[in-house]
Amino acid sequence: QLQLQESGPGLVKSSETLSLTCTVSGASLNSRSHYWGWLRQAPGKGLEWLGTIYYFGSTYYNPSLKSRVSISLDPPNQQFSLKLTSVTAADTAVYHCAKFDDTSGWHVGDWGQGTLVSVSS
Amino acid sequence: NFLLTQPHSVSESPGKTITISCTRSSGNIAINYVQWYQQRPGSAPTTVISENDQRPSGVPHRFSGSIDRSSNSASLTISGLKTEDEADYYCQSYDSNNHLIFGGGTKLTVL
Q1: Which residues in chain B touch residue A114, judged by CB atoms under 8 angstroms apart?
Q2: Torsion sign over Cα A48, A49, A51, A55
Q3: Which of B39, B94, B103 sits opposite A106 (nearest CB)?
Q4: A11, A59, B4, B86: least surrounded by Cβ within 10 Å?
């Protein structure tokens, strides 16, 4: 059974970089069948897709985040990571890592439970 | 790019039927599949409808999905409402650049 677990600081200072890691069990990050990535949900708000990475490293990012977001893979450790630079209070959210599928259209196949990251001034 | 617009909230009594709409702002709704997710408080979302109208294993038959080309929208219908259906519901599609797009979410209250 696939499991995804987010980890990282729960508090980040404004203007600094938010860094989170997702540890995957039950599936290989090298699989050609899988895509990995991140979503977030600000308190009381809706879901927002942040970005997706494929096993050989190609990435897709939410244009609204411009150049602030990056996602990378670490297959030997069964992990992938999110970096979000120059954070502000608007980046306070629960961050979910996920496995995406593109069979029958792009969608979220599996979710991590999520981790709350607060941005302090 | 396009937006997906959902009603902010809906409410209905147990046993009744509700429909939540998801309207695509531009481009044909039928071009890209629509998924629906249910999110209960404090939990990660789960899929209740995939590929416009497919129910994943384990999702009750009370849940159904459809698309309407005339209104350029997708819909989630829940019949025989139960108190356990009270949750937030999100539609999701994607664009030609492989970007996932979510609706703003609809809060369902079963009272």
Answers
A1: 44
A2: positive
A3: B94
A4: A11
CA angle A23, A28, A32 (to 5 degrees): 125
Instruction: Give me the average pLDDT of each 10-residue run along chain B (111 residues).
Output: 97 98 97 97 95 96 98 98 98 95 98 91
DSSP string, A13-41: ETTS-EEEEEEEESS-TT-TT-EEEEEEE
Strands B4-5 and B18-24: antiparallel
Question: Which residues have CB under 8 Å from A88's CB, separation 6+?
Answer: A14, A15, A119
Q: Which of A48, A49, A107 sits opposite B50 (nearest CB)?
A: A107
- CA angle, corner A6, sides to A93 and A79, nearest 5? 135
